[in-house]
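Why do we care about 3D structure at all? Because function follows from shape, and shape follows, mostly, from sequence. That is the central idea of this module. The next example makes it concrete: a single protein chain, its amino acid sequence, and then its structure expressed as tokens.
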Amino acid sequence: MSNDPSINADREGTLLLCRLCWEESGAVVDRWKKRAAKSGIQVQMVDCMAACDHGPSGALAAPGAWTYLLGHLKEADGDALFWGATALARSKDGLLPWDYRPARYRKIIRGRIPPIAAGQ
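And the structure:
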């Protein structure tokens, strides 16, 4: 465990993928699920993310963190997506670290949603 105060080791990152966008890319999703199982990241399929104009769509989420809506995803984005899920889960402030984001994030982040406070 790191002593870095900016790291939160208690959260698990989740990569959410739009089932409709990714239905023809089952092999890609299966590879990502196998990789996720080895890295402590969850891959969850959701019925529709209503971001069809920006598909294939996905999102990065972690408890108590901002959720990042992603679009125009490609199979080649796997490394960037797994980096993001891990970085978000470890972030103390619930944000992806701007300085260390892969360049691809400039093109795929469509928006972010603040965390819901406990009890709301």
